Amino acid sequence: MIKTVIIEDEKPASRKLERMLSEFADIEVVAKIESVEEGLEWFSSNEHPQLIFSDIVLGDGLSFDIFEKVRTKAFIIYTTAFDQYTLKAFKLNSIDYLLKPILDEDLAAAVEKFKSFIPSDNAVNSQEIKQLIKKDKSTLSRILVKIGYNLKIVQTHEISCFFSENKIVYLQTQERTYPSDFTLDELEEVLDEKKFFRVNRQFIINSDYIKNIHTSPNYKVELEFQPQEEITVSRERVKDFKDWLVS
Question: Which residues, renumbered to this chain, carry the PTM 4-aspartylphosphate (predicted)?
Fold first, then answer.
């Protein structure tokens, strides 16, 4: 049997996932955890499972806080309503990332993926897993931003560019500028490379919003919606930039 733990602070969602997992004859749910505090206590005093299904945003923090403090060799399948945490999830033993509401076929595919990582002799090749995860990583489609005490979901296709200013990375839409929790390096890893390109240290732009490109004396890009600062393609990126434009 595959020992499994569910981490979910919403009881209806936890019960639903447990019911869905009960359809798999070889999966046994051994614990259901509702908070970071409870998770830290449970993983510190119990034998770790082989597989964990974990929501990310819990009532007292992020489930990442558990696995950054308590080391586990268990594989983690994250379940969440937001996909902005994809990059961090894949750095913390994640083999899949399911967006809510979870579909039966997506859950089945995630379980099969987990099983494919476990050879018959149970000898896990961590390097091979890392490569498979890297190839399978999905692109970011929406971002959760804070506006005062409120939260807003911004679709990445609505974003003309990301830019850094005073060590904070912002995203620009037609509506306004929003601060984000990402670095530009992290965004390069998870954005759709067909749509987004990092033109210099400060800017990542979306091809859908390019209004004009000046080529002399330097490559300068004008976007439909952009901050006041000019966007110049760094010299070492010009060739890649032109290749990206026609790819």
Answer: 55
